[in-house]
Structure formats: C-alpha cells, structure tokens
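COMPLEX REQUEST
Ligand: 6R9
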Amino acid sequence: MSCGLGHNGRPATKHRKGDVVSNESLANLLKEERRFAPPADLAANANVTAEAYEQAKADRLGFWAEQARRLSWATEPTETLDWSNPPFAKWFADGRLNVAYNCVDRHVEAGHGDRVAIHFEGEPGDSRAITYAELKDEVSKAANALTELGVGKGDRVAVYMPMIPETAIAMLACARIGAAHSVVFGGFSADAIAKRVEDADAKVVITSDGGYRRGKPSALKPAVDEAVSRVDSVDHVLVVRRTGQEVAWNEDRDLWWHEVVERQSAEHTPEAFEAEQPLFILYTSGTTGKPKGILHTSGGYLTQAAYTHHAVFDLKPETDVYWCTADVGWVTGHSYIVYGPLANGATQVMYEGTPDTPHQGRFWEIVQKYGVTILYTAPTAIRTFMKWGDEIPAKFDLSSLRVLGSVGEPINPEAWVWYRKNIGGDRCPIVDTWWQTETGAMMISPLPGVTETKPGSAQRALPGISATVVDDEAREVPDGGGGYLVLTEPWPSMLRTIWGDDQRFIDTYWSRFEGKYFAGDGAKKDEDGDVWLLGRVDDVMLVSGHNISTTEVESALVSHPSVAEAAVVGAADETTGQAIVAFVILRGAADQSDELIAELRNHVGATLGPIAKPKRVLPVAELPKTRSGKIMRRLLRDVAENRELGDVTTLTDSSVMDLIQTQLPSAS
Ligand code: 6R9
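STATUS: Structure written out below.
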C-alpha cells in the first residue's frame, strides 16, 4: 500500500548522530484538513493586513527600512543592509540609537509614563505593578550602578536570575550603557555558568539569593559562587534580595543590589550607540560540544523584535494585556518579554513561578486577574494542561483573551485544537511562531487578522522574510515536498556571529547550502505552499531507507485519547538501520496494558502508514526536557540504545533520566 513515503530503493544508509540525513525528502505523512478563518472583527482592525506581504515582496529592504522607523534613532540610518561580506551582515549600520531609551524613556516622553509596563506576579502571590515612569527610574539607577562598578560600552555582564522585574531591569541597564548581557538560565549548574561566563569574559554577574519555584525558595547564589571561583574575569557579583534566604558572602566581590542600586540617581542620559553595537550573547547548547554564544546587535534586532510583536500579536498598546510565559533565560524571554513588548509600549504580565503552584489553574487565574488579552506559551505547557484536564481552565473567566501564540516546538495538531477550544473559547486565532535563538525574532507564523490557520503548521514566512524548503542538493522542493528549512535572504535580527568563533558561525549555518542559512530543521510544504516543521534534522529517523519525522509520529501518538505526551527516537536496529522507539506519557486514567501498547502501535500505523509503526512503545512518567520545554531526544536515544547518557546539564530535572531508566524493561 502507499503510505505517502518515498523510498530511495537502497538499503538504509548509515545514519550517525549529527549527520544531515540522506538524499531523500523527509516523510510527508500527516494529513490535517481542519481550517480556521481569522475572526472578522480582528481582521477588520488588524495592525497588519495581507498588503504587507505584497509590499515586502516588491521592496524587501524598503520594507525593513520602514519598520526601522518604529524606533527612535538619535541618527536615522540611511543604509539598510550591508551584505558585502556574507554571511556577516550589517543592518542600518550608519544609524545610532539607544535600545533602553527605545524600550522605556520614549514612552514616558510620549505621555505614557503612568501606563503599567510590568504586572509582576510572584509565585507566593506577591504582586507589583511597575509603570513606564518607574521602569525608567529603575533602569537609570541600575545603569548608574553598573557604571560605578566599572562596566562600560563593549563589556559583558552575566545575568543569572529568577523571573522577577530586576531581571528585565538589569538587561535594560546593560543595553543603556552599551554593555552586552549574557543571560544564563536560572537553574543551570555552576559548571554551565562558569563555561558561559568564561567564554563571554564577563566582568560582573547579576544574580539573586534565589527565586520561588514549586512553593519554596530555590537558591541561585551558591551556583554563581562556585562558578565565579573557577574563572578570573569577574570583579563583582551584584545580588538582588528576593527570597531572603541565607547566602554566603564574599566581602571583596559581592554587593547587594538594594544597597548599590537604590542609592543611585534616577537620572541617566542614554548615549546613542551604533546600530551594530552588541546587545546580547545568548548560549544555545547545540547537540554536542561547546555551547555556542549567539551574538545579537542593536538596531536590526530591535526593529524585527518590535515589528513581529506588533504584527503577529496584533498588539494594541493602549488596551491589550500581553503575557508571555517563557523564562527570560530563553530567547523567547529576550525578544518577547523584554525587547519587543517594551519597545512597543505594551502592558504585560510577568510571572515568577510554575504553572501548578499552588494549584493547576494558576495560569488561568492570572489570565482572569489581569484580563490578559494575548497569551504566548509553548506546546510542552499546552500538552501538560491537556493532561491535567479540561475542567481546570473551565473554572476561570478567559473571555478577555483574543490572540494565542505558540513557540518552541512543532505544536501537535491535537494540542493546537485543544488550545483553541479550551483556552481560546473557539474564537481566538492561534499563531504558531517558528524561529530560533539564532534568528532573534519570529520568522514563520500566521498573521492573526489575515491567515486562515491550520492546526500544526507555522504556515508562511512573515513579510520581509524569505524562507523555503530545499532538498539535499539545495533545490527548492515543489509544493507537497519535504526537505530542509532554509532562509534565503538576510533578515534584520539575524545572529551576527558565534561569539569569538566566526569560522564556527560559517560552518554551522552557512556551509550546508551555499548562500543560504541552514536552520537545522526538517520541514515540508503542503499543497498550498504552507510550511510544516518536522523537528530537528538530527532527530529525523531513517527506517529501512525512509526518512521519518519525529514530529509526525509524536503527533499521531498524541492524537490517541490515552496519550498525553510522546517522544520518539530512532534506535540502531540490525534489520532496518533504525527502529522507532516511542516513549509515551499516558493520560491519567489510561491503563498500562499490553493491549494498549499494541493499540498505540496500530494507531500510528493506521494514521501514518505501516513503516511509521513504532517497534517499541514504552510508557514513562516524565520526559527529559530543557528549561524551554524541548524534549531532549538524544538522551532517550542513549536509553533506547543502552548507552551511557550524554551531557545532562541543560535538563530541567536530571532525576527524570534515572526515573525513566528504572521504569524500563531492559532496553535491548
Ligand atoms: C524560539 C526558540 C529553536 C528550535 C527551532 C525548532 C524549534 C521553535 C517552533 C519550532 C516548530 C515552532 N521550534 N519554534 N519548531 N514550530 N513554532 O524556540 O528558539 O530555543 O533556539 O530553538 O526550536 O526546532 O530550530 P530556540
């Protein structure tokens, strides 16, 4: 029977971890027919209409030059893009601006000083509203404090913080004085901090005593103490008091934020820097080896962060209450908590804690309390809410919501539909936004007032962005084909390099397909030309010569009523090259029987075709995830192949792997 899979007619080619897979299109399996038109009232008043695509197509650089005018420049740029030395781009190179001024001061000058910038909600229930005028004072004081500590233009500052307003203030203070921040996820180990501080050669680390997680204070400073003891570059550690827990103190090095920052003047004149002034470094772990310090600069980055936040969320700063549930330590927090929303003068919610503290309705209670209108979260969270049950969000008033966003992984169609129905009241459009740390801002996404959406597809490159899908020989695939996602033109918020390693920047992103940026994701185009993301190419499975996407098999599993979450990997197999091994979290009531396992295998076979039927289905209680909620399939592959586990330092909770291993029948 035909199951929609291509076959290269040869035995399975060797497939090693990290290889770019084979010479055949990625599988194109899942059929999704549901469609949702944009709500008429939203479409009628949308910030961006279909015309934007036309305008950007006719004159891409002119389009971006126009978007750059959303910002306030001390010197307006006359050049848009300098691509004379690819892949090293310069955007708006002769323009000068101050990023913090754009995110804070200009809103106060425009008469919006009383508008709330941040509604902070602490996990224990404490809350704080910070207006733009107050934010300006706080950022100015922190900028003065950093200057006093000897930090200046071109220096690096590491930030290791919980989700509290001081984190955004610290980032903006760095931007204000031209220092680059390097935010390290609060929760990474001392070793991970040390590597990042050392690589960036940071002078100062900003941290806190701790933050609240799962109902108790969780310490942060001890990890910084240990990390800093191993590196030479750090002169000072500035410590915010959040939990009041006891901390070790080094008199020569440590300073309390409330002592040093609070006594500063709230006056600080922002200096204008060139558009290509480094704004931040953010490390991505990559699959192997040393973390890559992704470098972003100022003018182009802020232009695209602000434009996409305006266009994709249809933000109306006077009336919307926006909430992005990401951690600031992830790029999503940089672009869509700090820079995009604040550049646009948004009012937003910032929440410190976890979604199940003190109860599983916490997110919905927050939506109700603040009247959140735009919610941006991740598929991992949505699947968790599905697992907890429809009755939990149903207890809260979610009628204020009008746009829902998703980011971080492909969203399974079933999770998409659940999100729309149970959170969005069947009325809110969902924007599934594809982008990366490296792209700096959203690249592929529906527009809420324009696009007829399809569950599971990020659909179309945003205005001004050029993306496509190519085969192994860099040829664009026709509609209906699959292959590799590439970006074919430079974009304003693109990474400028890997910090300290230009060659690695070229090798990693620009060498696979000449003249194109290789994103590392598999993708397909449907018959309408819309893009579907299929997961990381490193994770693609090769079974008897067929390339099979992890995403599609996982989505098929999640579409079964007994499965809450699934992660599939290809494990070495003597007969088929790789065999599909599925790890599944069953829904509350589901009984873990041999019959159910057989039913799940058959369900995948029936949905996608027999070749995609998992060889093994292993029920587990948890899946290994990064702090941004991505499943770490390589660790599951290690389990499935009976290997010692690789690097677990970027896991949220490393005990998950012990749990999985002890639960499994011998994995041979
Ligand atoms: C923003 C962010 C980037 C990788 C990316 C892709 C996956 C993110 C996605 C998505 C499908 C989406 N990804 N958004 N896949 N649909 N809407 O997540 O950055 O942490 O660097 O990860 O995440 O695989 O290549 P980052």
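REMARKS: Confidence is low (pLDDT under 50) at residues 1-25. The domain at 544-663 is CATH 3.30.300.30 (GMP Synthetase; Chain A, domain 3).
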